[in-house]
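User: Sequence recovery, please. Input:
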């Protein structure tokens, strides 16, 4: 299935999609404030449009986007609605069986659903009640699930796309629609982590009031600038640190996931910022 056919298949089932960068292009097609296409190393994942407002299920629009220049397909998660206004949740496992193992650890069996095989693991698509507002935070699954979740103002790369490694994103079963998210998963995502960080400046932190401003700076990040703003804030926060302050890192991590980054992305950016500071 080529990108256009895949995009049309998704749109016919109510998934609003948009064009994203394709790793086969010489230069990244991604857009966004502070994103430099010329130096981009994370190919095939960046939206080629402002996805929060530019997405569609219209076949003619999809043909204009996907019928000529190579493009990957993004699903605008927050724009998708199921029956009774149900909202979309995508669970992104970083390795095969990660979600199955997490379900088992909570005393449940994995709920089969629409699944896309990725370069590392799977994307499992679920519907959650219309009244439920989820984000990208893992809640009580933090540190217990090898992956991330996407909900609300977020996106995922869809079946019919190509990973930078050349692996195709493929549907496991085109006949299986998204299932209702299991109760154990929703409860875990809405519960605080065992060691829930406070977003305000941690008590006793030498960063003091300055950290409050840095966290506010991260919380106010918009799509396309979140990683860069988090990196800058983490660099500033660690400037006066003799060693890695776990409280400061946790506060930044919490702010970043609230702003829309996945926990994995935020951890990687914070670690990179600290290592850069340490190298200096």
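Assistant: Recovered sequence (280 residues):
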């Amino acid at each position: 299935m080529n990108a256009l056919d895949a995009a049309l298949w998704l749109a016919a089932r109510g998934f609003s999609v948009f064009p994203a960068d394709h790793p086969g292009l010489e230069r990244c097609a991604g857009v966004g404030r502070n994103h430099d296409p010329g130096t981009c190393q994370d190919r095939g994942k960046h939206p080629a449009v402002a996805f929060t407002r530019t997405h569609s299920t219209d076949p003619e629009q999809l043909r204009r986007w996907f019928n000529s220049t190579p493009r990957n397909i993004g699903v605008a998660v927050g724009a998708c609605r199921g029956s009774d206004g149900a909202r979309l949740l995508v669970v992104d496992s970083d390795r095969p069986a990660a979600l199955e193992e997490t379900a088992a650890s909570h005393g449940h069996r994995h709920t089969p659903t629409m699944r896309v095989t990725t370069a590392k693991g799977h994307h499992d698509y679920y519907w959650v009640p219309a009244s439920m507002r989820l984000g990208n935070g893992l809640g009580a699954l933090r540190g217990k699930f090898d992956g991330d979740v996407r909900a609300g103002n977020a996106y995922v790369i869809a079946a019919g796309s190509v990973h930078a490694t050349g692996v195709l994103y493929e549907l496991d079963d085109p006949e299986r629609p998204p299932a209702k998210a299991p109760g154990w998963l929703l409860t875990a995502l809405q519960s605080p982590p065992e060691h829930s960080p406070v977003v305000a400046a941690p008590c006793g932190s030498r960063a003091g009031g300055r950290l409050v401003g840095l966290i506010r700076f991260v919380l106010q990040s918009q799509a396309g600038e979140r990683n860069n703003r988090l990196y800058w804030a983490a660099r500033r926060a660690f400037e006066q640190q003799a060693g890695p302050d776990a409280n400061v890192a946790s506060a930044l991590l919490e702010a970043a996931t609230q702003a829309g980054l996945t926990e994995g992305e935020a951890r990687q950016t914070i670690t990179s910022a600290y290592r850069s500071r340490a190298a200096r």
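Helices lie at 3-12, 59-66, 98-105, 183-190, 208-219, 226-238, 246-259, 263-279.
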